[in-house]
Design brief:
Aspartate Aminotransferase, domain 2; alpha/beta; Aspartate Aminotransferase, domain 1; 386 residues; seven-stranded mixed β-sheet; five-stranded mixed β-sheet; binds pyridoxal-5'-phosphate; 14 helices; 2 domains
Length: 386
Amino acid sequence: MEPNDCQNTTQMDTKVVHGCKGYDSHTGAISFPIYQSATFRHPGLSQTTGYDYSRLQNPTREELENTMAILENGKYGFAFSSGMAAISSVLKMFSPGQHIIVSDDLYGGTYRIFEEVYKNYGLEFSYVDTSGIEAIEKEYKANTAAVFIETPTNPIMKVADIGLIAQLAKSRNSLFIVDNTFLTPYCQRPLELGADIVIHSGTKYLGGHNDTLAGFVILEDDVLAEKLKLIQKSEGAVLAPFDSWLLLRGIKTLGIRLDRQQQNAMELAKWLKENKNVKRVYYVGLPEHEGYEISLRQASGFGAMISFEVASAELVEKVLGRIKVIMFAESLGGVESLITYPMLQTHAAVPEEIRNRLGVNDRLLRLSVGIENVKDLIADLEQALE
Ligand SMILES: Cc1ncc(COP(=O)(O)O)c(C=O)c1O
């Protein structure tokens, strides 16, 4: 479970390529083998190879879990069958009657599982703008057990000060959970800033190729790790061996993909700002963005997610119908640029009045910038926005 025997590399762009062990010590295989086995032969009575049954642990998944642990600079990594399975498993660590403070702008599926599933099991949630520490502080109650944030948020890209929230959460004896999907450990490592638990939808940048679902939890604390391990092995929402291998392979290029995606995103954000049919651009890398300074301090990149508001709802339909290189599809983080309409897709589960307050209106589009040549992306948007 612990990444004790990982290679001792120091640089992030080397770590992503080599992962934990980096190769199969039995055969020397450079591509870590897919141990496609549900169960493992015991050498004898009360003896084990370290692997008994793949719901408990599988060598391919273990290499991936340890890789994620070292990338996030944590002690324990856990791989799940999706980001939502990871979030769900973390929520099971809490008890009925406990209260969690959550970012008001966040992935709609996360909002849905909180409101429509976990409320029924007695958990309480309140939603605040977590880009301000006072709002979080005000929301604390006697039964507050955790703060759960995304930063940048999905889709409005609000930035929270991770270090500051970590101090507050600690002083109130509560846990601090960060969904780090948008920036990945390549750009931001919340555990280093004081968070207790990091969550990922591995489906996004970590996998990077829009070809599989995955989720991760990374943490530091031994007791929390035991608790989560019990949930993971008992529930079984684990990542399969082949998908674990896809993720290991995807992560190898995380650095160069994100470098290119961020470079493209910066150019596109600047271009969108100048387009007469674009009324507002939300990109953390623009100096006028409210979270720009905090981002410079706590992250080594701005990510490659841009949201923008066009002049009218009619134009949204036209853009989605006209784009050719950029694809109209849900999800983000892959090599292909994707555009979504949050109001009807990723955030459909969020009530209209909350959406409108946040700015997730009928004119808002969210763009996940890929690794294509940025000239093609700009040309595509130019003809679509006419
Ligand atoms: C920020 C964030 N967290 C979690 C999830 C859920 O992940 P998955 O789709 O892998 O279940 C998503 C999915 O879009 C997301 O954007």
